[in-house]
Specification:
Helix content is 50%, strand content 9%. Helix 1 crosses helix 4, helix 4 packs across helix 8 and helix 6 packs across helix 8. A hairpin with a 2-residue loop joins strand 6 and strand 7. A three-stranded antiparallel beta sheet has the order 5-6-7, with no helix packed on it. A two-stranded antiparallel sheet has the order 1-2. It is built from ten helices and seven strands. The protein is globular. It starts with a strand and ends in a 34-residue tail after the last helix. With 280 residues, the protein is mainly alpha-helical.
Length: 280
């Protein structure tokens, strides 16, 4: 895909006003790459002494979504798992409700309402889903937090990547990958726990007696989390996410959008250490 190009040709020039024939103009070819290789981004964790307003809200969303995702499969209700999608038995357990295949109309209604709510929030508040609740955003934030804790802040990570391979670099990079893999496998395990009773799944994992399909889906979902949040990151949003493709059709001039204001501009150059970061 790196070699895929789009060729544009300039339109022919308008006829000259005079009777004298103009020399022919050779058409120019403009090569546009449809895919750009990812360049490493080293974001700052904070501006000034504390996290920004929206950063605090993002971390609040990370905590809420992950507590629900990891904790809900372990919740018991009337002697069984509170939320369990038992595909083999064709039954969905949702707290006190048991839904059968003929009840799929209710699930369809819930999904339609969720989709319409997503469209409404996007039209009013802009990229609320992408910025605060999307799994790609949430897990990328978690992986970047682990990266900062192990490799250091922005400047330290840049120096580490540019440094030759040595004991320090191998240990830090290896520790980061180990933490990433651990988070990914726990995520994959929790995901499968929504379709297989998670307590039985935990016993099977500890005794190395997990079924082939359960093991496959744990590794598949864990591998997707590891690759998407650890390496692809914003490439997922730019090239793969279907929601990003039609999101621009859901907003208008009154929607809240984070964008560069070319008319206002921004101050150029490095900020003085004595300057107030919040005031800028």
């Amino acid at each position: 895909m790196d070699n895929a190009v789009e060729v544009k040709r300039d339109p022919p020039p308008p006829p000259a006003a005079s009777t004298k024939a103009a020399p022919p103009v050779e058409p120019r070819e403009i090569e546009i790459q449809l895919y750009a290789r990812r360049e490493e981004i080293y974001p700052r964790q904070r501006v000034g002494e504390s996290l920004g307003f929206f950063q605090k809200w993002r971390w609040a969303a990370v905590w809420v979504t992950q507590i629900v995702f990891y904790g809900l499969p372990w919740l018991q209700w009337n002697g069984r798992q509170a939320l369990l999608f038992d595909l083999a038995a064709r039954k969905f357990y949702i707290f006190s409700m048991v839904m059968w295949p003929q009840d799929i109309i209710y699930l369809t209604a819930i999904l339609i309402i969720a989709a319409l709510a997503l469209f409404l929030f996007t039209a009013v508040g802009g990229r609320l889903w992408c910025g605060f609740a999307c799994p790609q955003t949430v897990y990328t934030e978690i992986f970047m937090w682990a990266e900062r804790k192990i490799e250091g802040d922005r400047i330290a990570r840049m120096r580490l990547d540019q440094a030759p391979w040595g004991v320090n670099k191998v240990l830090r990079k290896g520790a980061k990958q180990a933490v990433w893999l651990s988070i990914a496998l726990i995520t994959g395990f929790s995901f499968v726990g929504y379709f297989t009773p998670i307590r039985e799944l935990a016993v099977a994992a500890l005794t190395l007696d997990m079924s082939g399909w359960n093991a496959f889906w744990v590794l598949f979902y864990g591998g997707a989390t590891y690759g998407n949040a650890g390496f692809l990151r914003e490439q997922m949003c730019k090239y793969m996410c279907p929601y990003a493709r039609f999101q621009s059709a859901l907003i208008d001039k009154d929607s809240l959008v984070i964008a560069y204001d070319a008319g206002r501009g921004d101050p150029r150059g490095s900020r003085s250490k004595k300057a107030n970061a919040a005031a800028q």
